[in-house]
Structure prediction request, 191 residues.
Amino acid sequence: MKPYLKWTAISVGSIVAIAHVGVLGHLIRREPDRIQVPTINIPRGTPYSSYKIEAGKDGYTIEYKANDPAILESQRSLSLDKDKKGLFGGGTEQRREWRRDQYTAEGVRNMGGAAVDGEGKSAKDIECIVADAGARSQGAMAGSAIAAGVLVPAVINIPYVGWLAAGWAALLGNNIGSSAGSLVNSAISDC
Prediction:
């Protein structure tokens, strides 16, 4: 055998032997396979948020509800049965009240949106009625003040009926101011 073939065989054998020792060392030190769990970034919401996470070998799903529960309920009831037998005879009083309110998580009472109450009025209708009442009141005060400053001094000096005409002038200012306040409110508040 030629010397260069001998050294080539020894070199190749040494490389294969060292590689086998390295592979065996790697296999011996290798840790068992771990299941890789995905990193899930859960959204940060309000303190009332809820999460439902389902994970499997095919993937995962997240169900996220912000502000859960969105509506909190409060129920109150009062029952009073009173049988009063006193000095002048007896009397009975029976009162039953039941109230159910809904609140948001911030403590604001739910007015029901477009829901209709027992009288057939929606929350928007009630809001418009309240706004109209306030506008009429403010308009009546302004109309009375203007009438008291302008009309009343002009008519109070009429002989015999000046005091009566001054009252009529104040009432006229009140009525005109109330109508004007309602008209301005209907133009501004979309009612």
Q: What stands out?
A: The helical segments are 3-29, 123-155, 162-188. The CA atoms of residues 102 and 108 lie 9 Å apart. The radius of gyration is 43 Å. The chain has a mean pLDDT of 78.
